[in-house]
Amino acid sequence: MAWIVLVISGLLETAWAVALDRSAGFSRLVPSVVFAVTLVLSMAGLAYALREIPVGTGYAVWVGIGAVGTALVGMVALNEPASLPRIICLLLVVAGVVGLKIYH
Fold this sequence. Notes:
Elements: H1 2-22, H2 29-49, H3 55-77, H4 84-102
């Protein structure tokens, strides 16, 4: 269960990062509220998962999921560059996250 919560928390990290960007410095209400809610839920899920998963592994997986998810949203929906080297680097992050799970 802790791993499922950790993955969901990582996805929520993607949501709060994108909402933070869309909030335009907290000048737009809806993205600012989405940011606050998803941030709290993401942190609460991370805290829950860390009761069973070592902090180094849990935090690295959480950040990895959030970073890759945010970069993918940026490339797919926000017209950020999607170069081959960038995609390869994201795949390396995914490989690291999978490795941490396998060798946990």
